[in-house]
Amino acid sequence: MEVREFIRKEVEDWEDEVVGRARFKAFSGQRSDWEPTYRFWNHLLLSIARHFHLLIISPSQVKNNWFNRNGLTPLCLDQVLLEMYNEGEIVRCSDLMDPRSGRMSLLLRKFSNLMLRPTPSLQTLLQDRLILTPLLKDKAVEVVNFLSESHWTSSCIVTMKKFHDICGGPEEASAVLSHLSETGKARYLSIHKKDFVEGVKVSLSSAPVSNISSLDCDVLHLVWTTERLQQQLDVIDRRCEMSRKTALAFLHSGNKKVALRHARELKLANESREKCASFLNRVEEVLSIIANAESTKKVSEAIQIGAKAMKENKISVEEVEFCLQELEESIEAQKQVDKALESTPSYTDVEDEDIEEEFKKLELEVGSGNLQVPISQTGVDSTLGEVEALESPESLSDALSNLKLSDNSTRESASKSPMLAMRQNKLKNLVLEAT
Question: What is the CA 149 to chain-centroid distance, rounded?
Fold first, then answer.
């Protein structure tokens, strides 16, 4: 029912009898004749699967439940599924490679699928469960990202049970593992000790996953042990909570003898929990040491590669240190420039009234508020250039004598252009300081 409601919202004209009759017809003629109808059903199938997080679909359920309109089912749906299979958007569950069969078997199966991909009959296709390839790829990326959030190494090992929980079930996990194994991003591993333990090694980087080693098997056993201990801790916690509530209930009812018995059970459970928690901490500490050792190994390998490259290119350690020092100085200089730019005030929001106020303060400081220079904008620029070019007091005096001083005209110019007044005042200061 939820799927049908989604379809009605997704397809506005779903209830239209004329349009629906055309969509439910069987395909006939050339592909160009029914291509738009095929794309409609293709898009609708993938939209429903994405919305309800359905990685695997059943053809009978899709045909009889999803797209059933008053007892009518799409006659073209079988052909739609077959075309999606031919285009690689659908694979059968039976077509998946079994990661447990070994590396050589996987390679042979992959080669045979590429060279001689079997084309099942329509009846065989409809009887199998189908996996939507676009959603399978998205799910595989989602699983790797989820594992990356809790592991900081280049790869990780999880138990098969944990992998099932992440993928959403055994069937979905089998499809995701098959896809990751086919793309070289994961490997299946198992150990046979007192218990049979299955796990998955997943690459969390862009590089393919490495081969399975004896250390990987030991790590799998440790991870499986931590999960078992955590489950035991959860059981003990529930038992402690139950004993505590029961003891309090009998104590409130006045039955101290029974309450004392449950209090003893609570004490024993707490002692058992402490031992279990201590053991769990030790196992997690061992796993942390292994992860740190792997990280140290990666750093050591990187140092060795760098040393080899320096030797091959005849680069000395002093040259590398000098380059690094120059790089640090350049970065520091750039930071200082950025800091200075950030601290520089912005003048775009300054009002003319603020400039006039500042100009009046400068006039009072200089003490020559009655002296004004009525010159144009171009005259200010040229005069400033001349003042800067003067080197002797005599030339400065000559330049001063050539200036025409007029109080009224300058005030009028300052009121028209506050910025011009500021530049004029700067010119006067330069002249006064020089004289």
Answer: 10
Count of helix runs (H) and strand runs (E) in the chain: 18, 6
Both 126 and 31 in one domain: the answer is yes
Q: What is the DSSP string of 140-206?
A: HHHHHHHHHHH--SSEEEEEHHHHHHHHTSHHHHHHHHHHHHHTTSEEEEEEESSSEEEEEEEE-SS
> Which residue, 153, 183, 207, sits at the end of a domain?
207
Q: pTM of the prediction?
A: 0.63
User: Would residue 403 count as lying in a domain?
Assistant: no
Residue carrying the six token digits 């390839």? 133
Q: For 125-161, what is each residue's pLDDT tens digit? A: 778 889 999 999 999 999 999 999 988 888 899 999 9
Tell me the residue range of the domain where 156 lies. 138-207
Residues 53 and 80 in one domain: yes
Partners of 200 in the beta sheet?
A: 158, 188
Distances (CA, A) of 366 to 370, 402, 435: 11, 21, 14
Element (H, E) at 90: strand 90-92
- The structural domain count of the chain equals 2
pLDDT, one tens digit per residue, over 298-356 is 555 556 665 566 566 656 656 656 666 766 777 777 777 667 666 655 444 444 554 45
Tokens of 196: 């049979």
Number of residues that this document lists for the chain: 435
Residue 195 is part of a domain; what is its CATH number? 1.10.10.10
Q: Do 383 and 423 form a contact (C-beta atoms < 8 A)?
A: no
Which DSSP helix (H) or strand (E) runs through 131?
Answer: strand 130-132
